[in-house]
Design goal:
alpha/beta, Rossmann fold, Arc Repressor Mutant, subunit A, 3 domains, four-stranded parallel β-sheet, 12 strands, about 45% helix, Xylose operon regulatory protein, Homeodomain-like_sf, LacI/GalR-like_sensor, transcription regulation
Length: about 375
């Protein structure tokens, strides 16, 4: 007798983020409980599969991004977990990447490069794009700077055509002051922008630096030049959704409050790997720090690379980057520690050695001061590993 729970996954297989969700669900199944999976091959925005209305299942994990999917899910009256930001069925549990953190990572990256002019290129057909736009603009405005916004015509709009959209992008791009740092709502939109830059013979990243979202490795590497991209933790999002659905199918009462999953970080490639800093000595100092932060350098080492006194270096550094050279070194080290905690099984002692901390105790104190939690708690909270 087959007593496996039957679970439908209404998640498209056509993009890297959705495939990451599916990988996280598979990981949960392998670690916990075998499910009978029903996964239709579909594109984003596809109609509900015909079999869903008569399907004898136990639960659903869905990207509810259309009213048709929302209606079909409501009609089934089964335990459902939503993994979309659209919130078309607000009464059900929701697991989603943290779009505020994603936008702030992109803003921080471009601000760190010294840009004074910014843009956001979005797709208003998706709620996650609108959220990223809002938080990116807010992050730029907190630095007393402004951001120009381009909203594409949504692809489901009858007015949409790529030729029309390309002309709108060209018109917007020509009006922007340069150099400019631009965040695109996701990698596909960023690739389109890079195509327009190439057609206009605009230098990337020297005149226009571009950052996408999703870190679709194939798409990013095929872009010209290769695309920098924020990496959401889609795998962990899928894993959390599977855990939540399992609780619901077991009879637990689960609230509809959002569960936000933090991004992994930003993968820096050629499209944004530039310093837009007019102060040549500070640009050289920043470049040296970024190339050597994890090798144990101190501010004294930076001073050997630039013809400035410590007071002049720190004063000009803070004026441009709003932090001291020491803070920049520590920020880059801690960022590297986070990646190693999440992406490897290295011990804390091994990580401390890899990022330039002489003692693991010093790493723990610095990490707690910067992040608000210990390295062990951070790794366990994000990956379940000790």
């Amino acid at each position: 007798m087959n007593d496996r729970r039957a679970v439908a996954l209404l998640i498209e297989t056509s993009n890297a983020y959705a495939r990451g969700l599916l990988e996280g669900i598979v990981e949960w199944i392998r670690q916990h409980d075998a499910w009978s999976i029903y996964l239709p091959e579909q594109m984003r925005g596809a109609e509900p599969p015909n079999w869903l209305s008569r399907w004898k299942g136990d639960g659903i994990i869905a990207r509810i991004e259309t009213q048709a999917i929302a209606a079909a899910v409501r009609k089934r009256r089964l335990p459902v977990v939503d993994v979309s930001a659209a919130r078309l069925v607000p009464e059900i549990p929701w697991v989603e990447t943290n779009d505020q953190s994603i936008a702030e990572l992109a803003a921080e990256h471009l601000l760190d490069r010294g840009f004074q002019h910014f843009g956001f290129c979005g797709d208003p057909g998706f709620q996650w794009s609108t959220l990223r736009e809002t938080h990116f603009v807010e992050a730029i405005q907190r630095s007393k700077l402004s951001c120009s916004v381009h909203r594409s015509i949504a692809q489901y709009d009858p007015r949409y055509s790529w030729n029309r959209e390309k002309q709108r992008l060209i018109k917007w791009l020509k009006k922007l002051p340069r150099p400019v740092g631009i965040m695109c709502c996701y990698d596909v939109k960023a690739q389109q922008l890079l195509d327009v830059c190439r057609e206009l013979d605009v230098a990337v990243p020297e005149e226009v630096a571009v950052v996408g979202v999703d870190n679709d490795h194939l798409l990013c590497e095929l872009s010209d030049p290769p695309l920098s991209s924020v990496a959401p933790d889609a795998r962990q999002t899928g894993y959390e959704a599977a855990e939540l659905l399992n609780r619901m199918m077991s009879g637990d009462c689960v609230d509809s409050d959002p569960r936000f999953i933090e991004p992994l970080g930003i993968e820096i490639r050629q499209s944004s790997d530039v310093l837009a800093i007019e102060d040549h000595e500070i640009a050289a100092a920043v470049r040296f720090i970024r190339e050597n932060a994890t090798s144990g350098i101190q501010v004294a080492d930076v001073l050997k690379e630039v013809p400035l006194s410590r007071r002049a270096l720190e004063g000009r550094f803070v004026k441009i980057l709003c932090r001291t050279p020491h803070q920049e070194i520590m920020r880059l080290r801690i960022d590297r520690v986070k990646r190693l905690l999440l992406e490897t099984d290295r011990t804390l002692s091994e990580i401390a050695h890899a990022v330039g901390f002489d003692h693991v105790e010093y790493l723990s104190v610095a990490f707690k001061r910067e992040v608000g939690t210990t390295p062990k708690e951070f790794r366990k909270g994000r990956t379940g590993k000790k």
